[in-house]
Design brief:
mainly alpha, about 650 residues, 5 strands, Rossmann fold, five-stranded parallel beta sheet, 2 domains
Length: about 650
């Protein structure tokens, strides 16, 4: 038995629940960016929800056209995509680039490449080639969020060309199976890239390694295509609309939605558990919600398309475009930093309000008219306004003048953009100072001054004066210090070289604590490890006690170890500093140089990333190291004093009374 026949018609072009699901997706991403550290620590998975929707929707629309006409008009399809994507994108790029030009600083870094990537929809690959990334804190990229648009647009270009090959397969299940196989292959490729220790940016930004959500949506579109065809002619069986089936669809969709929210609440890890694990799981959840939403008679789609969610979903493209550049600009203007250095709640709320307002205005006055009239129709409308009476003519002239100003502002911003960020600049200056020091060594031979650590640190003979010994710390010179560190130490190298002439500094970018033992062991085995070992490796990741134990063992009992703690807007830094403090308290011969406390009152001396010190900040770093070295030397002197005092007492315990001196 079937339902009463309906008049033959094409399936509706609007799919129930997709606008609501878009609202959920963009909400996750916006909260993740604007309010970091909240419950949605993994909100970036909203992008994968978008990918599933895009794969499903575009494939469904192309198949609808193919069924209706027997062909796919590539020109019409790409023209529709251009109408949908380019107007809002051009507005966001020109407005935000012009604002960046007025603000200046790190927001202009590599802006030319970013603009090219935005307009050519190649942003993801330009970022990979440039060594920048979604999870990078090096530079506050103005259009970093455009990487996902590039992935989708590349799909829009290639998929209409490939789809006819899938349509050669005779059954929907075969087409869907082929799409799912591609999804599995893409996810597996991301896993291989991550597990092999490859660049996480390459794995995350790569179209090949991050297309599994899109192919999952494609497979879903193939799978329910027969159902949509039967729906178009009113031939849907009653059981498909039964209460039990509708309830099942709601349960499946609800499970998928709750799964997405749960995954979005989990903090990411740089392993296959997140890349692709969490991303693929969120994609599966999005596919379940989509299936439940478009199922005939399911109420889930109607509930998801509640008016507020539908309003957000319809404007989700503009919201996604605006929110990140606005955040970068506001943080730069008000804090002088980038979002990765922290986002005050007030700035997050202001960004959210501006995003909703600008996305709403863009949707009404830019996106919708172009979608309805096309590019030529919109130009004709402007031409008619210029020929109309004064009111419309003034409005049109003002609009053209504003557009010209934005284009000029964008060009000025691109031309004014520095090649590197302020943080990278101070790091490169430090590297240059080290290179110059290596090329022009000090006349003093460090090896002759430092000597063997055991011999250098050996207790000296106490003069037999009959007087009790006293603590006698001695100044530590640069020739006695080996320093191993990360980019913060590298940026501070000019100050370290000035404060400690002859110091040996081995510092590099992106170096974590795990590299410390290997470097120190090599220096020790080559006889180049000096009596005082300064280690500053807490900026780029957690530090565990086992690594510190290994560092202390390599240094040995006759060297002093100074651990420089960390200062950076990273969630692991407090734990790093606590670990260093506890380790030093439990080990003689180990002390802490408190860089964090020294620089905290002087954050203005840091670069825009709030991590790397400029020249004056480097002086603060060198002062902190000097204080740590002095503390280590004093503790060594106290230990030596204790040993000498015990020896003195042993020698005089049975002798004649001492004569006061």
């Amino acid at each position: 038995m079937t339902t009463p026949p309906l008049p033959p018609a094409s399936p509706p072009t609007r799919y129930a629940g997709l606008d609501g699901l878009r609202a959920v997706a963009v909400g996750l991403v916006v909260i993740y960016h604007l309010f970091p550290g909240t419950l949605l620590a993994g909100g970036f998975v909203g992008v994968d929800v978008f990918f599933v929707i895009s794969g499903f929707l575009i494939t469904s629309l192309l198949m609808r056209e193919h069924r209706a006409t027997g062909r796919i008009s590539l020109g019409d399809f790409w023209r529709r995509r251009a109408r949908r994507l380019l107007p809002a994108l051009a507005l966001v790029v020109t407005v935000c680039a012009s604002a960046a030009w007025m603000i200046g600083g790190d927001v202009l870094v590599r802006l030319g490449a970013q603009v090219v990537g935005a307009f050519t929809f190649s942003y993801n690959w330009i970022s990979v080639a440039g060594g920048t990334g979604y999870f990078s804190a090096a530079t506050p990229e103005l259009f970093r969020n455009f990487w996902s648009l590039a992935v989708e647009e590349q799909f829009y270009v290639v998929w209409p060309l490939v789809l006819p090959l899938f349509l050669l397969l005779p059954r929907a299940w075969a087409r869907g199976g082929a799409a799912l196989a591609l999804a599995v292959a893409s996810a597996a490729w991301m896993g291989v890239l991550v597990a092999s220790g490859g660049d996480l940016t390459r794995a995350y930004f790569g179209t090949d390694s991050h297309a599994f959500g899109i192919f999952l949506g494609v497979g879903l579109a193939f799978g329910i295509a027969p159902l949509r065809r039967r729906l178009s002619v009113g031939a849907v069986p009653v059981w498909m609309r039964s209460g039990a089936v509708r309830t099942t669809a709601v349960v499946i969709g609800s499970v998928g939605l709750l799964g997405i929210l749960l995954i979005a609440s989990l903090p990411p890890v740089d392993t296959t558990a997140t890349f692709p694990g969490a991303l693929a799981a969120a994609s599966i959840g999005a596919a379940l919600v989509t299936l439940a939403g478009v199922w005939p008679g399911s109420p889930l789609g109607r509930h998801l398309d509640a008016r507020p969610l539908r309003w957000v979903g319809e404007r989700s493209y503009g919201i996604y475009l605006w929110h990140w550049p606005l955040l970068v600009l506001l943080v730069a203007a008000m804090e002088g930093t980038g979002p990765d250095a922290g986002v005050p709640v007030g700035i997050g709320l202001l960004t959210l309000a501006l995003t909703l307002v600008l996305a709403g205005l863009s949707y009404r006055f830019v996106e919708s008219p172009v979608r309805r009239l096309g590019f030529r129709g919109s130009l004709r409308r402007i031409g008619m306004a210029l020929r109309a009476r004064s009111g419309r003519r003034v409005t049109a002239l003002a609009g053209l003048a504003a557009g010209a100003a934005l284009v000029a502002g964008t060009a000025a911003a691109v031309l004014a953009g520095p090649a590197v960020s302020s943080g990278q600049s101070v790091v490169e200056a430090g590297a240059a100072a080290l290179a110059a020091e290596t090329a022009s060594p000090s006349p003093t031979d460090p090896s002759a001054t430092a000597g063997d650590a055991d011999q250098e640190a050996a207790p000296q003979e106490t003069p037999d004066t009959g007087a009790a010994p006293t603590p006698s710390p001695t100044p530590v010179t640069g020739e006695e210090i080996t320093a191993v560190g990360d980019s913060v130490m590298l940026a501070s190298a000019p100050s370290l070289l000035e404060r400690f002439p002859g110091i040996s500094v081995d510092a590099a970018e992106s170096r974590s604590a795990w590299a410390g033992p290997g470097i120190l062991r090599t220096l020790r085995d080559e006889g180049r490890l000096r009596p005082v070992v300064v280690v500053g490796l807490g900026t780029n990741g957690p530090v565990d006690r086992a690594t510190l134990e290994e560092i202390a063992d390599i240094a040995g009992p006759d060297r002093r170890v100074v651990l420089v703690n960390a200062f950076a807007p990273r969630d692991w830094v407090p734990g790093v500093n606590d670990t260093l403090r506890a380790f030093a308290a439990a080990h003689s011969g180990v002390s802490v140089a408190d860089w964090s406390a020294a620089i905290d009152p002087h954050r203005e001396l840091l670069a825009g990333d709030r991590i790397h010190p400029g020249r004056r900040g480097g002086d603060v770093y060198a002062d902190a190291v000097a204080a740590g070295v002095e503390r280590a030397e004093y503790e060594r002197a106290v230990r030596r004093y204790g040993e000498e005092l015990r020896a003195f007492r042993d020698e005089n315990s049975h002798g004649p009374p001492l004569v006061p001196q």
